[in-house]
């Protein structure tokens, strides 16, 4: 019951680099428990060293403390299991498209070609402009069909 209430509260915590989706929709929420009267929220970071993690931690603490005033909250970023783009919820993939970010391909295997559809027109006639986008998890592409630049989430797969 506590886990479900906290998960619902975290539906309102957005990824600051992709504010169209919550950390739950991105698949970052792993577990919650209580340890010595402290609520421990376990999250999977999308990318190691992501600069948004301190802000996400602060927002998670605020959301959980509002549900349970007086209880200390600890946020732990786990290294295992590794987060992969397979964890992104189907509704989040659609929200990313509407926000102008192409979601990563489903069932991507490391080393496979990265096929991306333009989030604006759906065309596959796109080129990679820069593998390094505005954040570690995104790249910059250009659609030759509708002539729009756009960002795409990099696929992260397990080996």
From TrEMBL:
Residues 103-154 form the PaaD zinc beta ribbon domain. Residues 3-74 form the MIP18 family-like domain. NCBIfam families: PA_CoA_Oxy4. This is Uncharacterized protein. It comes from Heyndrickxia coagulans.
């Amino acid at each position: 019951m506590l886990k479900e209430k906290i998960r619902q509260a975290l539906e309102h915590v957005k990824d600051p680099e992709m504010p169209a989706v919550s950390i739950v929709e991105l698949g970052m929420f792993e577990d919650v428990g209580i340890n010595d009267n402290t609520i421990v929220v376990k999250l999977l970071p999308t990318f190691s060293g992501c600069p948004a993690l301190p802000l996400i931690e602060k927002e998670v603490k605020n959301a959980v403390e509002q549900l349970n005033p007086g209880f200390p909250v600890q946020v732990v970023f786990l290294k295992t299991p590794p987060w992969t783009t397979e964890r992104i919820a189907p509704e989040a993939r659609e929200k990313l498209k509407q926000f102008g970010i192409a979601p990563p391909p489903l069932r991507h295997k490391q080393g496979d070609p990265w096929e991306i559809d333009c989030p604006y027109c759906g065309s596959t006639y796109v080129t990679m402009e820069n593998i390094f986008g505005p954040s570690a998890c995104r790249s910059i592409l250009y659609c030759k069909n509708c002539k729009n630049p756009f960002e795409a989430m990099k696929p992260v797969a397990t080996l």
